Amino acid sequence: MKAKGDCYRAAVVLLVIACVLFVGARQAAATEPDYYRCVGSSCLVWGSCSDGCGPIWFRVRKAAVVKQGPTTENPWTFTWLEAWGTGDFVVECSCDEGENWETAATYKICKITLYVNSGCTTELTDWEAGDNNLRSPKFCFGKEESIYIKVEGPSGLGDSFFEVQVTSESDTTGVPIVLDDEGSGVYKNTSTSGELLRLSTASSQAAYDYIKVVDEEVLTFKLKVKSSGAEICTLDVMVDRGEFATITARSYDSRPNINNAPDRTPLWNDAADEFKNDINDSGEGNLDWWGVGEVRGSDAGNNDAFDDFLKNGGSNQANNLESDMFYTHSHGNNTGDLYGTEITSAGPPIIEDWETIFDCSNDFAAGDWNNDVEWPIIKACSVLQHDGTGRAHYEDALEHAPRRAPPAASSRFCRATGFRARW
């Protein structure tokens, strides 16, 4: 027994435990000696006994329940399974074929999950790349919509024990989010502590924590022990900041033999403003998205203004690129071309024939609508008729988009505007 005991003590001294964390496609070396890990982490353990001893055994235990092992594999790789739950675990070793076990290391296993609602019932996820699509967001966020972080782990660690560093592709420094202890081993970011996370055009920290997102971007959430800065694990998800733009053409009735043709431009402008208000206001059911371009009464004498706006899906500036949704109002026909009228005098306009402000078959280029456009709304006669050629041109342009359209945003858009979607 003494030999076995000596052997066992040697095993404890010589046992090496190393962990490598795998989260999605990311990999990061674990930080000792904090021993906090996440569900899904993969661990590698190995060790040795002194001369004359049998093989070393390993197992993983939570309270009185052995979760995995015993095994004589050496080195031995195992994964912290979600079915095991969270909390305190021990990795044990034995040099006497399991007669005696001793703790080689204690691990505190956590799980981090993201949600889009305060009740943490709707998980924030994305679509993986596949089927000729890039990785795509499932959610477009408005100005007042928050991301909720929930960590499950050992109970009783207290407020501010966990911190999550959130970064984006536009802000690689990011913002720290401190979690409150909600009890029963649950930790969240809360409005009480001013730690709710929102997307914005710039990162800042005040009553809310804002992270800069220009386009469809991957957010990275790095869970840490706040006091030591020790990294526990990393989770990422693709999100989208909802943006829209609106433009109308200038329109005077071009019907012949009418000396006092009505000016339709104010009516078109009012319709665009109503649409904008449905999208932009934060009232019940509305999206409260960011406006990234607005033009009213675009003169047909300046064709490039309307043409560029439509091809770019809005203003297409550095801080927003293409909008997710844009609205146009003009004349049109079933070839897909759009028309307006030109100002010809400083006084009452002379009635003019319509002039082309967007040539559907020639003005689209391969790079148009290939970034973020998901819902173009074209308010013009005949443009999308099945018996014309215009519909195919617009459908082809939408096919340039390499990502899938977020379904959650589309259903909310239909409620906000009264549109009915057909899929």
Structural account:
This protein has helices spanning 2-14, 265-280, 303-312, 360-363, 390-398, 407-417, and strands spanning 16-23, 26-29, 36-38, 42-46, 57-62, 65-71, 76-79, 87-94, 102-115, 126-127, 136-137, 140-141, 148-152, 162-167, 175-178, 180-183, 186-188, 197-200, 204-205, 209-212, 217-225, 231-241, 243-249, 290-298, 325-329, 331-332, 338-340, 355-358, 375-379. By secondary structure, it is of the alpha+beta class. The protein has three domains: 2-110, Immunoglobulin-like (Sandwich), CATH 2.60.40; 116-239, Immunoglobulin-like; 243-417. Strands 3, 5, 6, 8, 9, 13, 16 and 17 form an eight-stranded mixed sheet that branches. A hairpin with a 2-residue loop joins strand 16 (180-183) and strand 17 (186-188). The chain is elongated. The termini are far apart.
Strand content: 35-45%
Q: Specify the helix fraction band.
A: 10-25%
Number of strands: 29
| Biggest sheet features | 8 strands, mixed
Low-pLDDT regions? 1-34, 410-423
Brief descriptors of the model:
423 residues, alpha+beta, Immunoglobulin-like, 3 domains, five-stranded mixed β-sheet, elongated, disordered N terminus
Concise account of the structure shown:
This protein is of the alpha+beta class.
